[in-house]
Structure formats: C-alpha cells, structure tokens
Design brief:
The protein contains seven helices and five strands. The protein is of the alpha/beta class. The chain has a five-stranded parallel beta sheet with strand order 3-2-1-4-5. The chain is globular, with a radius of gyration of 16 Å.
Amino acid sequence: MIYEEEPHYLLDSNIISEIIKPEPDFNVISKIAEHNSDCAICTPVWQEILYGLYRMPEGMNKKYLDNFINDDVHENFKIKNFTEKAAAIQADLRAKLEKTGAPTQKEDSMIAAIALANHMVLVTRNTKHFTAIQQVSDLLIENWFEA
C-alpha cells in the first residue's frame, strides 16, 4: 500500500502571485521548485486568486492568467479545505485575539487555522498579518522572500 504524504507548506496568495510575475523573486521560485510536491494552498487563498482573476478586464492578460491558475496552480497544488477542525481553531484564535485587543482579518485567521489544523507551515510575505496569531498559537511561518 502506498501512502501519500500530506503537504508541509501552505502557500499564501502573495507567494502564488509571485510565480506569474515577469521578474519573480528568485528566492521564492527556488523554494517552490525545491518543495513543489510538499506545497498546498487553501480554499481562502484559492478564492483570493479567483477573485483577482474575475475582476480583470477581458483580454489576453486575463486569458493567460486564467490558464495559469487552472492549468498550473490548480493542477500542481492540493487545495486544503476549511474543515470543521479548522473552524474550531479559527473560533478559538479569534476569541483569544479579541481578548488581547488584537483582532485580525477573518481571511487571515481562516488561513492560519487551516495551517494549524493540518500541521503545516504557512508561507507568506505578509508575516506581520499573522504576528498576533503566532502570539496565541503554535503557528509556524516562513517568508520565502528572505534568503
């Protein structure tokens, strides 16, 4: 019987959007290449990516981005769902953050909860968005923009 290992890294939308830039950050591209099969995205990130696509005016750039999202991102990265376990973790995080006077964006707490529920490292450029969450949880974060 073959057991497929679950991904270890949960990529935020700013990491995924870096891939398609004309001159992407070398460190990010290197890390994705190194850990490709060990990376995933989550449903809130998938929503953010699609929302950005759907807001674009019709044209060649939109068609190119649509192909990239559906052919590359969707095919190469597992999408981790917002589960009952993640919902319980998010509720706990939000309650703790409210008590400390540091409420966070709902989407950020959802992404963090999915990472925690799946024992994953969140990879993001926006580390400060998750600082308060790290203070009330065991959330691990890496910034692949840093060497």
